[in-house]
Amino acid sequence: MSKEPQSSSKIWMKFLPLMLSVLTMVLTCRKDILSPEFRIVSLSPAMTEILFAIGAEKNLVGVTTFCDYPAEAKELYKVGDFSNPSMERIIGLKPDLVVVNIPEQKRIKNQLDQLRIKTFVSSPRTIEDIYREITAIAALVKKEKKADSLIAYMKKNLKPIKIKERKRVYVELSSRPLVTIGASTFLNELIEMAGGYNIFQDLTRDYPVVTQEQVIKRNPEIIIVLHPDGIGERLGWAEIPAVKNQRIYSGLEQDCLMRPGPRLVQGLKELKRIILE
């Protein structure tokens, strides 16, 4: 006896579980493309660079207007500038984590704490601090191997040169007031690695305010200026060796010296070129 052909409804029911399984896979893949599992808003230009460097850029859903490197970072959604990001925009992105710089963004962190939005505090003082932060953020996005490779690259290239006589170096971050660098900063470490001696490394504050008289007395042989200003025209500075010998350097790529991230490698190369000239 021949069997009756199955009805279309029975055939549909037979393949329904398989079709639902395929549909679920498609939707899951689509969700991963459109929305990363761990959503990060980075208010730190340096940490934005680090997240790109360890291959976690897909986790970034928002950044500040100051997050301009690498070039792809410029295409990301902007939540505002470094000092005054829009809390409304940050909340709208539904982040799992917001990266903040301390002490500069302490007020913003307090607001995020009140809203019970998790934060990752970036506040590196030394190069070792930078390595620790790279490791910590990488663990959150499951990029530990990439982080290890990045740290290995930085350690390989951030090494001190051997030199007998070090040049006295004055770094000026601001002219009104005069702001320089103290001992416990990664820029001070870079100066030493490059063969220089920071004339204010005895000061305990990270970025102390100093006087013109102090600079003149400490008699720098090299002056590095990270802002546009006519140092050579200042009253009483004419006899400073750096001024007399025209060893004043400005126009450097600030981000390679002041952003605690991978580009410190380029910053050190530039400092070596200047100090060993």
Automatic annotation (TrEMBL):
<protein>
    <submittedName>
        <fullName>Cobalamin-binding protein</fullName>
    </submittedName>
</protein>
<dbReference type="Pfam" id="PF01497">
    <property type="entry name" value="Peripla_BP_2"/>
</dbReference>
<feature type="domain" description="Fe/B12 periplasmic-binding">
    <location>
        <begin position="39"/>
        <end position="277"/>
    </location>
</feature>
<dbReference type="InterPro" id="IPR002491">
    <property type="entry name" value="ABC_transptr_periplasmic_BD"/>
</dbReference>
<dbReference type="GO" id="GO:0071281">
    <property type="term" value="P:cellular response to iron ion"/>
</dbReference>
<dbReference type="InterPro" id="IPR050902">
    <property type="entry name" value="ABC_Transporter_SBP"/>
</dbReference>
<keyword id="KW-0732">Signal</keyword>
<dbReference type="InterPro" id="IPR054828">
    <property type="entry name" value="Vit_B12_bind_prot"/>
</dbReference>
